[in-house]
Write a structure and sequence with these properties.
Structural class: mainly beta
Mean pLDDT: 93
Distance between the termini: 26 Å
Helix content: 10-25%
Shape: globular
Low-confidence stretches: none
Largest sheet: 9 strands, mixed
Radius of gyration: 18 Å
Number of strands: 22
Length: 225
C-alpha cells in the first residue's frame, strides 16, 4: 500500500516537476529534472535565475515530500517565493519538507550547502544574507529570519533595526521550535536544542547550545540522526 501511494505521488508530481525545471532552470540542466515538486508545493513568486543549483543530477532536490510526525500531512502546503532580485543558491541534495516556507526578498541571498534538509513547517525568510553550510538538518516549526520584518526609526528619523546576516556552519542540527534571528552565528558540528532563541554569534564548534537567548551548555564529539 505504501509503495502504491509513493508511485501515485510521483505520477501526480511529474507534470509540475517538468514545468518547474523548464521554467526556472537553464535548459540543459532542466532536462535532467534535478528538482522534484510534490503536489502540495505552491510557487508564490519566482523568476528565471532566482534559484541556482550547482551540478544537480536527476532527482537530487526534493521539495514538499518529506512528512514529520508533528506536521499535518493533509492540509500543509510548502511555499516557495523568491522575489525579483533575490537569489536562492542550492549546492546539491536538498530536501524541503511538507509545510515549509522559503521566502527570499528583493536583494536577499539565501545559500544552502549539500545535504540540506527541513522536516517540515520551518520558515526561512531572507532579506539580507543567510548562509547555511553542508549537512544541516532542521526539525519542524522553526524560524530563520535576518530582519525584523518591520522598520523602526529613532527620534532622529534614522533606522534603528536594520537587517543583518545569519551564518550557520557545517553539520548542524536545529531542533524543533527554534528561532534563529539576525546577527546569529552557529559553528560547525553543533546541536541547537528545541525551543531555543539564537540572536547572536555563538562562539565555538562541537557543542550543544540551548536557551533564550541560546548559549553553549555542553561539548560534544559528534551527532547523527
Amino acid at each position: 500500500m505504501r509503495n502504491l501511494r509513493k508511485v501515485f505521488t510521483i505520477i501526480l508530481s511529474l507534470p509540475r516537476t517538468v514545468w518547474f525545471n523548464l521554467r526556472y532552470l537553464p535548459f540543459r540542466q532542466a532536462l535532467r529534472l534535478p528538482v522534484w515538486l510534490a503536489p502540495n508545493v505552491r510557487v508564490k513568486e519566482l523568476y528565471r535565475g532566482g534559484i541556482v543549483i550547482d551540478s544537480a543530477g536527476f532527482n537530487s532536490t526534493h521539495i514538499g515530500f518529506h512528512n514529520a510526525d508533528a506536521v499535518d500531512c493533509y492540509g500543509s502546503h510548502t511555499v516557495i517565493s523568491v522575489e525579483k532580485g533575490g537569489i536562492w543558491h542550492v549546492s546539491n541534495d536538498m530536501h524541503i519538507g511538507r509545510g515549509a516556507i522559503i521566502h527570499v526578498k528583493k536583494g536577499g541571498r539565501l545559500s544552502v550547502g549539500r545535504n540540506f534538509a527541513i522536516s517540515g513547517t520551518t520558515s526561512i525568510i531572507c532579506s539580507n544574507s543567510i548562509e547555511i553550510g553542508n549537512d544541516v538538518q532542521f526539525s519542524w516549526n522553526s524560524l530563520v529570519m535576518d530582519s525584523d520584518a518591520h522598520r523602526i526609526y529613532g527620534e532622529d528619523g534614522k533606522l534603528v533595526n536594520p537587517s543583518a546576516p545569519i551564518s550557520i556552519g557545517n553539520k548542524v542540527w536545529i531542533a524543533a521550535n527554534t528561532s534563529i534571528l539576525k546577527k546569529a552565528g552557529i559553528g560547525d558540528n553543533c546541536v541547537v536544542a528545541g525551543n531555543s532563541l539564537v540572536n547572536r554569534k555563538i562562539e565555538g564548534s562541537n557543542q550543544i547550545v540551548a536557551g533564550i537567548p541560546a548559549k553553549p551548555i555542553k561539548k560534544i564529539s559528534s551527532w547523527e540522526l
